[in-house]
Amino acid sequence: MNFSEVFKQSNQLCKVSPDGKYLATCVQYRLVVRDVSSLQILQLYTCLDQISHMEWSSDSLFILCAMYKRGLVQVWSLEQPDWHCKIDEGSIGLVSSRWSPDGRHILNTTEFHGRPENSQTPELSLTASTPSDPHLLHVFSQISFLPSC
């Protein structure tokens, strides 16, 4: 039985793409994408901070990297390595970032650090922004649940 060399990873972030062709691993602020059969590095991306969460799109064309401490999400394209997207939630507190089932939308859950003015009913705010190429990705950049206090 043959084994590959050991690859570094951070936060147990190592995932095979949905189509089974790629292996993505995170090492602090770097995202490494390898071919599953040869384990050769295909892409190496550098994020702005240490990666907390990584997720493949359903079609294996994009990878989402969330940096919860900084409120940032970066998205990388395997087809177009020069293309990337950055979503900055700022100080409202990013707590979760996920792909929608179609692999073309990102749902970010944020947390407001303060008491809402109307605390009687929960609220949902949704902001959508579309990149210049509509075939690439639609980003829902703020999905915030305000629980009643």
TrEMBL record:
<dbReference type="InterPro" id="IPR015943">
    <property type="entry name" value="WD40/YVTN_repeat-like_dom_sf"/>
</dbReference>
<dbReference type="InterPro" id="IPR052778">
    <property type="entry name" value="Centrosome-WD_assoc"/>
</dbReference>
<protein>
    <submittedName>
        <fullName>WD repeat-containing protein wrap73</fullName>
    </submittedName>
</protein>
